Amino acid sequence: MRAQFVLSEIGVGLRRNLTMTFAVIVSVALSLALFGGALLMREQVSTMKDFWYDKVNVSLYLCNKNDARTGGQCSKGAVTAEQREQIKSDLEAMAIVEKVHHETADEAYKHYREQYSDTAIATVITPDQMQESFRVKLKDPEKYKVVATAFAGRDGVQSIQDQRSILENLFNMMRGMNVAALFVMGLMLVIALMLIVNTVRVSAFSRRRETGIMRLVGASSFYIQMPFIMEAAFAGLLGGLVACVMLLVGRYFLIDGGLALSEKMPLVNFIGWDAVIAVLPLVLVIGLLMPSMAALIALRKYLKV
Question: How is it placed in the membrane, per its record (predicted)?
Answer without folding.
Answer: Multi-pass membrane protein
